[in-house]
């Protein structure tokens, strides 16, 4: 399952971010990686922690995670200082727990230990809440943020068997088609595409 | 800065900016009248819709927060046998509950008008106008629907893959399937895009392909109407003779109170807030509430009830790609007790057990959104990584379900009153809903389940749930609380939608319905609103 920038743009478009402006491209003009947390100390460390969470919560067969997450997080936090702040605080919280229990930031733990930190915090059973307890905020701003991005994208949906997942403007063709249709259905029908690589639109033609 | 002062000179004051108010305001503004619309809620920014959709999909947000409902403004109480969850599916704001609605728009059947003081023929031209106004995608393939004189404005959405699974079973049983009229663009219409398949119609359509009444509010404004948002009407005042309403008294966010005078008033605030406003407007002359000489204001509250059966199949059913349905069955609408005969059996006739009433009209729906959507499962589960993916694959794919609506007959005891023990943010008593589900309605639900079960059994489904007489819930169609009639001792408005008591007070709402039928009410609300506007025009 290869995630692409197109998936990130589609997921962003569905979440209300205007993605046609180029503002959310993951690299700058010199080819350097852009960072959604650039305004905070150690932005690449923040990004690494977010990617470490993605390593735990995304299926192992998913490829292309870094560009997908970086592009998505850039778009999601653009012009949304409060939301970025919520993410940054949740990342700090997660690192604090990791340091307390294992003496290292979350991103520096091995895969098994990362998973155990989330489990011990109770993030798996926490009720997501942007204003809630530590596990509730980690669940909301990190785990569910990443899962929302993945499972409203065409590639994430397709991995479950639905090429037009809820939240994605995948057109009105797929609901009519039976399961015997081509596996890669959305690419077979140009009318299904909502976010191309060159000039993605925001999904709703009425806007 | 928004000007919320009253207009100096207004021909018409409309209370409520949902579909009825928007359509009436647009029609009257278009005819050159000075129209002011007072709306309790805010004007929502279209650009925020995707974030509202996210709030709806992602756990961590109160569902009421999707459209900013709840809180002291919207307080209510509920009594009677069943709790009535009033705020779960109504929206206060420019566009009203059409911001949230499913968008199903059928004409009532001819039989539904039997005890109304007007018949299908009287409403037929208004139905056609309402279909053009809302933009209805439909097909003339329903043998049980009332006659129509012209095609739908847009072609119907084609049947879904799961409809085709149902079709084979229904054919074997002699059950007829047909298309559904949707207030949802199957192609670009009226400067709104075709549906792009977000799959979240209810409660948010981010593309605007689903009709919402903010479009007609904008049209009304472009014809010169003025819309004042966040302006809850506190009471209506009348003249000394008690024959005319003189002003709507409304509050504004700055704590001020204003009087909007007008020659004509149109109440379009829905089946709960309209009777509440009339009851709040009691005076020495109308001690039981304005326009309430009959005592019928607030009484005969009706809703539709949901019946459903669902489970899984041994095949992929392709659910949750879109958030609307594409097939229905009205075969049991006019004759709910009938059986059917097909190639391989049929639906049995209703068996009269002797101690329960015969069922009333039933509308059956073939759902396109049975079972969980993967993204919602992922966000509310307690797994991640490969375990989560396995669970999603196992949980999604072969769900199947039918839904349906049945109606309630009008009963005096089901009613909206004022609860003086609880007040809203302006100190007014909140609405109190007295609601129960009677034996006949339970018969209708049982009958609906029986038919649904027969179809799912024929399909080979492993049935795992049903919603029927014991666990049904309301469809949030508030009807009957200012009923229409020719006898001023028994009803609140006449067939011209004007109150019997006050000569310049019209009501455009499902509150004027005499009976409920079993079909989603909004197209009829729209038709009645256009008719009410025509009669206001005649009086002006």
UniProtKB/TrEMBL annotation, chain A:
InterPro entries: Gluconate_2DH_su3, TAT_signal, TAT_signal_bac_arc
A Pfam family the protein falls into: Gluconate_2-dh3
Name this protein carries in UniProt: Gluconate 2-dehydrogenase subunit 3 family protein
Organism name: Halorussus aquaticus
GO terms of molecular function: oxidoreductase activity
Leading EC class: oxidoreductase
Documented EC number(s): 1.-.-.-
Biased composition regions of type Polar residues, renumbered to the chain: 191-201
Record region (Disordered): 157-207
Taxonomic classification: Archaea, Methanobacteriati, Methanobacteriota, Stenosarchaea group, Halobacteria
Start-end of Basic and acidic residues biased regions: 179-190
Annotated keywords: Oxidoreductase
TrEMBL record, chain B:
Swiss-Prot/TrEMBL cofactor(s): FAD
InterPro entries named in the record: 4Fe4S_Fe-S-bd, FAD/NAD-bd_sf, GMC_OxRdtase_N, GMC_OxRtase_C, MIP_CS, P2Ox-like
GO MF, any single term: oxidoreductase activity
Positions with biased composition (Basic and acidic residues): 333-346
Family: Belongs to the GMC oxidoreductase family.
Region spans: Disordered: 333-356
Protein origin, superkingdom: Archaea
Keyword tRNA processing annotated: no
Name this protein carries in UniProt: GMC family oxidoreductase
Pfam families: GMC_oxred_C (PF05199), GMC_oxred_N (PF00732), NAD_binding_8 (PF13450)
Keyword Chaperone on entry: no
Coiled-coil stretches: none
4Fe-4S ferredoxin-type domain: residues covered: 186-215
Keywords of the record: FAD, Flavoprotein, Oxidoreductase
């Amino acid at each position: 399952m290869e995630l692409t920038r197109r998936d990130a743009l589609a997921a962003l478009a569905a979440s209300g971010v205007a993605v046609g402006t180029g503002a959310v491209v993951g690299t700058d003009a010199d080819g350097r990686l852009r960072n959604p947390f650039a305004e905070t100390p150690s932005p690449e460390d923040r990004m690494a922690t977010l990617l470490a969470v993605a390593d735990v919560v995304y299926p192992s067969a998913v490829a292309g995670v870094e560009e997908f997450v970086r592009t998505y997080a850039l778009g999601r936090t653009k012009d949304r200082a409060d939301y970025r702040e919520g993410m940054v605080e949740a990342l700090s919280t997660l690192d604090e727990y990791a340091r307390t229990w294992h003496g290292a930031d979350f991103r520096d733990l091995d895969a098994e230990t990362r998973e155990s930190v989330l489990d011990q915090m109770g993030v798996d059973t926490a009720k997501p809440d942007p204003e809630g307890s530590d596990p509730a905020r980690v669940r909301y701003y990190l785990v569910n943020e990443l899962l929302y991005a993945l499972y409203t994208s065409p590639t994430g949906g397709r991995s479950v068997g639905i090429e037009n997942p809820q939240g994605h403007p995948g057109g009105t063709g797929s609901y009519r088609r039976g399961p015997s249709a081509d596996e890669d259905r959305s690419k077979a029908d140009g009318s299904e595409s909502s976010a191309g690589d060159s000039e993605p639109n925001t999904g709703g033609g009425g806007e | 800065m928004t000007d919320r002062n009253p207009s100096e000179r207004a021909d018409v004051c409309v209370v409520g900016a949902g579909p009825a108010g928007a359509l009436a305001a647009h029609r009257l503004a278009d005819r050159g009248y000075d129209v002011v619309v007072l709306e309790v809620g805010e004007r929502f920014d279209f650009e925020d819709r995707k974030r509202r959709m996210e709030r709806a999909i992602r756990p961590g947000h109160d569902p009421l927060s999707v459209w900013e409902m709840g809180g002291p403004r919207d307080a209510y109480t509920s009594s009677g046998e069943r709790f009535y969850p009033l705020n779960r599916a109504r929206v206060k704001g420019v566009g009203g509950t059409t911001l949230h609605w499913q968008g199903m728009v059928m004409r009532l059947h001819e039989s539904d008008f039997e005890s109304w003081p007007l018949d299908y023929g009287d409403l037929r031209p208004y139905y056609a106008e309402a279909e053009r106004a809302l933009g209805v995608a439909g097909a003339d393939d329903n043998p049980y629907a009332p006659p129509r004189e012209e095609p739908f404005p847009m072609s119907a959405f084609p049947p879904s893959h799961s409809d085709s699974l149902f079709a084979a079973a229904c054919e074997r049983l002699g059950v007829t399937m047909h298309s559904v009229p949707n207030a949802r663009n199957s192609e670009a219409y009226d400067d709104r895009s075709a549906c792009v398949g977000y799959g979240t119609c209810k409660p948010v359509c981010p593309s605007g392909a689903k009709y919402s009444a903010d479009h007609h509010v904008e049209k009304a404004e472009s014809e010169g109407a003025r819309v004042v948002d966040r302006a809850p009407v506190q009471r209506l005042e009348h003249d000394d003779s008690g024959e005319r309403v003189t002003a709507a008294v409304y509050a504004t966010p700055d704590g001020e109170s204003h009087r909007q005078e007008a020659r004509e008033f149109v109440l379009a605030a829905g089946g709960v807030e309209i009777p509440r406003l009339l009851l709040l407007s009691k005076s020495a002359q109308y001690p039981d509430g304005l326009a309430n000489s009959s005592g019928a204001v607030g009484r005969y509250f009706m809703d539709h009830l949901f019946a459903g059966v669902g489970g899984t199949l041994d095949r992929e059913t392709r659910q949750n790609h879109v958030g609307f349905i594409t097939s229905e069955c009205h075969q049991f609408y006019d004759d709910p007790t009938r059986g059917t005969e097909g190639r391989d059996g049929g639906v049995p006739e209703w068996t009269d057990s002797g101690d329960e009433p015969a069922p009333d009209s039933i509308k059956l729906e073939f759902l396109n959104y049975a079972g969980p959507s993967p993204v919602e499962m992922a966000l509310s589960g307690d797994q991640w990584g490969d375990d989560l993916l396995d669970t999603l694959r196992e949980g999604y794919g072969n769900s199947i379900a039918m839904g349906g609506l049945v109606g309630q007959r009008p009963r005096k005891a089901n009613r909206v009153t004022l609860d003086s023990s609880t007040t809203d943010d302006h100190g007014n008593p909140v609405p109190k809903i007295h609601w129960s589900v009677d034996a006949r309605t339970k018969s209708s639900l049982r009958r609906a389940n029986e038919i649904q079960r027969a179809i799912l059994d024929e399909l080979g489904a492993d049935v795992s749930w049903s919603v029927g007489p014991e666990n049904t819930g309301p469809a949030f169609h508030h009807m009957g609380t200012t009923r229409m009639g020719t006898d001023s001792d028994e009803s609140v408005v006449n067939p011209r939608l004007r109150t019997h008591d006050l000569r310049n007070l019209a009501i455009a709402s499902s509150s004027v319905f005499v009976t409920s039928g079993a079909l989603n009410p909004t197209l009829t609300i729209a038709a009645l609103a256009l008719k009410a506007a025509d009669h206001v025009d005649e009086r002006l």
